[in-house]
Design the sequence.
């Protein structure tokens, strides 16, 4: 019995040395999808996009992010029988802390993009990740 207790203590000490218990993510991978079509037929051009990155995204996540050029489609779920919209897209991937403060910065980015470019939404996913170095 004494050996079993010792093993339990050692195992507990080992497991509690990890930064988060199972199921608690300390790091999140956020993926944001920015459609480049502006209502009225215009498009977000490369100069406007670069300015948006420099003035909005970089100040909120100065440690870095990845931008991917993409093409996608979506249908507005708030409109009955909505047409499929196909457009060029910029995807930003940010690996960041799982925190309310970082969440707020992501929502600021989305809100500022929608306001600046007349967008109805910015598609957004979050997934817990484990960084392997």
Sequence:
């Amino acid at each position: 019995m004494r050996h079993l207790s010792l093993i339990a203590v050692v195992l507990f000490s080992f497991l509690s040395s990890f930064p988060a218990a199972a199921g608690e993510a300390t790091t999140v991978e956020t993926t944001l999808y920015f459609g480049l079509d502006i209502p009225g037929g215009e498009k977000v051009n490369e100069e406007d996009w670069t300015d948006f990155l420099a003035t909005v995204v970089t100040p909120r996540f100065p440690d870095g992010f990845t931008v991917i050029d993409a093409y996608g489609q979506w249908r507005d779920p708030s409109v009955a029988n909505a047409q499929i919209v196909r457009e060029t897209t910029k995807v930003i991937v940010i690996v960041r802390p799982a925190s309310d403060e970082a969440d707020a910065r992501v929502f600021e980015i989305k809100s500022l993009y929608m306001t600046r470019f007349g967008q109805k939404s910015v598609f957004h996913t979050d997934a817990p990740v484990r960084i392997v170095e």
Observations:
- The longest helix spans residues 100-117.
- Confidence is low (pLDDT under 50) at residues 1-21.
- The longest strand covers residues 84-97.
- Residues 26 and 33 are 23 Å apart (CA to CA).
